[in-house]
Write a structure and sequence with these properties.
By secondary structure, the chain is an alpha/beta fold. The protein folds into two domains: 3-78, Up-down Bundle (Four Helix Bundle (Hemerythrin (Met), subunit A)); 87-231, Rossmann fold (3-Layer(aba) Sandwich), CATH 3.40.50.300. Helix content is 51%, strand content 14%. The protein contains 13 helices and eight strands. The chain has helices at 3-10, 12-26, 34-43, 48-61, 66-78, 98-111, 126-139, 152-160, 163-166, 183-199, 217-229, 247-255, 276-283; strands at residues 87-91, 116-120, 143-145, 170-174, 204-211, 233-237, 259-263, 271-273. It has an eight-stranded mixed sheet with strand order 3-2-4-1-5-6-7-8, with helices on both faces. Strand 2 (116-120), helix 7 and strand 3 (143-145) form a beta-alpha-beta unit. Helix 3 runs antiparallel to helix 4 (48-61), helix 4 packs across helix 5 (66-78) and helix 4 (48-61) packs across helix 12 (247-255). The radius of gyration is 20 Å and the shape is elongated. The chain starts with a helix and ends in a 5-residue tail after the last helix.
């Protein structure tokens, strides 16, 4: 199955909701109802600020066919520069799909012939280590898992200084899930980032995992994590189970942080590199 097909299938719930809306808007011909267009962008969780700005720019174009104009605006928002760094630190709240994303990205890299080393700094939840260990066993990737109760920063320090890390193309670091409102845990996360910068200066990027089903609440999570650790990229998970796929547009528009990967299923190959072109065309295919 191609990436285009997987993404299109994963966005089916969002697309179905939007398709009905756009049909109601576009069938009105020259007297299109732009307020209705904005309303349905909101229903897809594009967000009030982004929706209003998109509709205003589409209206300014005054195009005979609104679909291409709308696609152009969405592409402009989602096409953000994205740098690929060897050390990737995964952060996010509990249940966002963070540890699973580490495992799936490990699988992707190993399948591509890359050498991967995994570091587990979640020393509070034994299930996270077991999950990571199983992913590494399947892929054959070496891993270092922190002992229960040990300091996460020390685990990362040891992992980054290990021979396995020096020989790896990519180092994937899982962290403990934490509520974005818990200041102590957010400070601990800041320490982990400082350790990474001290050992591998300039080599690390923070990837924030967000559950698409949370809709606009994802923006609140992004706000807090942005203040603490400044994510360089977003992994938007569980798109296949949500009709709120438009939240990707809201995130990119407000924070100018690129969507790096999207989760469109439970399989090991269902974490896909984000493509603005494929994403937009999956939301608004030509035949809708």
């Amino acid at each position: 199955m191609s990436i285009m097909t997987k993404i299109s299938k994963g966005l089916s719930k969002t697309r179905e909701k939007m398709a009905q809306a756009f049909q109601a808007v576009f069938e009105r011909g020259p007297s299109r109802d732009y307020e209705l267009l904005e309303e349905f962008l909101l229903l897809a969780d594009v967000g009030p600020g982004a929706a209003a700005a998109i509709v205003a720019r589409v209206k300014e174009k005054n195009c005979p066919d609104l679909i291409p104009a709308l696609k152009e605006e969405l592409m402009d928002i989602l096409n953000l520069d994205s740098e690929d760094k060897p050390v990737k630190i995964f952060v996010g709240i509990n249940g966002s799909g963070k540890t699973t994303s580490v495992g799936k990205l490990c699988h992707r890299y190993v399948t591509e012939g890359k050498k991967v080393f995994v570091i587990g700094t979640d020393t509070f939840r034994a299930a996270a280590d077991m999950q990571l260990e199983e992913w590494c066993r399947r892929t054959g990737a070496p891993c270092l898992l922190g002992k229960p109760g040990s300091d996460p920063g020390s685990v990362l320090f040891d992992g980054l200084n290990s021979a396995a890390a020096r020989n790896a193309d990519y180092i994937l670091c899982d962290t403990a899930g934490r509520l974005h409102s818990n200041k102590n845990l957010m400070q601990e996360l800041e320490k982990i980032i400082r350790v990474s910068e001290r050992v591998r200066p300039g080599d690390a990027e923070v990837l924030l995992t967000l559950d698409a089903a949370t809709g606009q609440n994802a923006l609140q999570q992004m706000e807090t994590f942005a203040q603490a650790v400044k994510p360089a990229g977003i992994i938007l998970t569980k798109l296949d189970g949500s009709a709120k796929g438009g939240v990707a547009i809201a995130l990119a528009a407000k924070y100018q942080v690129p969507i790096k990967y999207i989760g469109v299923g439970e399989g090991s190959e269902d974490l896909l590199p984000f493509s603005a072109d494929i994403y937009v065309n999956s939301l608004l295919p030509e035949n809708e």
